[in-house]
Amino acid sequence: MYELWGQGSDYEELEESIRNFPEERKSPYLQPGSSFKISVESFGKAISFQEQNERIQGLAYIPFKGQVNLKSPDHKFCLLETADYGLNNGLPPIAQRRIFFGREVGGADRKLIPTYQLKSRTYLGPTAMDAEMAFLMANQALATSGKLVFDPFVGTGSILVGAAHFGAMTMGADIDIRVVRDGRGPDCNVWSNFKQYGLPPPIALLRADNNLPPWRPGLKEVQQQYLHQYYLFIFRGAEVSLPLLYTDGH
Ligand SMILES: C[S@@+](CC[C@H](N)C(=O)[O-])C[C@H]1O[C@@H](n2cnc3c(N)ncnc32)[C@H](O)[C@@H]1O
Questions:
Q1: Is the domain of 132 the same as that of 93?
Q2: Across residues 172-181, what is the average pLDDT?
Q3: Do 98 and 173 fall into the same domain?
Q4: I need a labelling partner for 198 at 20 to 30 A (CA). Which of 9, 65, 171, 234 fits?
Q5: Which of 174, 178, 193, 230 to mutate to test the pocket of ligand 1 (most atoms within 8 A of CB)?
């Protein structure tokens, strides 16, 4: 996912577009003392290593003042070039050549999936949440360090595992005492699912019926957002605000 700094159908248009992108949006990422990396991606054609270097040199009008760091840069940029696609008997292409330049603001970490996939999870139930879906939910809930994520239908804890991966503290509840207390034995339970990945364990697992939620009435700091399948509460440490991601009844 990129913050788009400019685009064009050729490099002249791209330059004009990048120059027109507001200075205050660019300059924080061009500062001396920072490090950066520019990668070149192409779609519909291959760009040789030498061509990639030439493309990068062609961006010299962007006043990067930081150092290049290819291994762990502070800021990552991408030049993405697509080829004309679908040229046919002199007719215009279906998709025209387009060049984009942007700053990376996020990316999918596909490497997480093999690590967390359910088939290698110790404690599984028939409705254990798929790892990829759990990560999506955790991201939607902005689960991160300093927040507390609560899943009132915790089951095997698979949603909380996703939230804990992103640094959130976790807490779960389930109506079934066997789920929160026993699992399938001492090394096969919600706790062991966290241990398996070296994640901090939930701060608590409660036995609770969420038809009778154990929260005080009129909890004013509750905000609500829709998310399918389960409830997730997030308590923000300092503000104690509580976005509630709630179920559609499945
Ligand atoms: C679909 S499973 C949750 C699966 C869980 N997300 C996981 O990854 O394993 C639903 C869980 O909600 C629990 N449950 C059902 N009704 C409940 C209620 N009224 N209050 C609390 N938990 C309830 C069930 O015991 C079950 O463990």
A1: no
A2: 91
A3: no
A4: 234
A5: 174
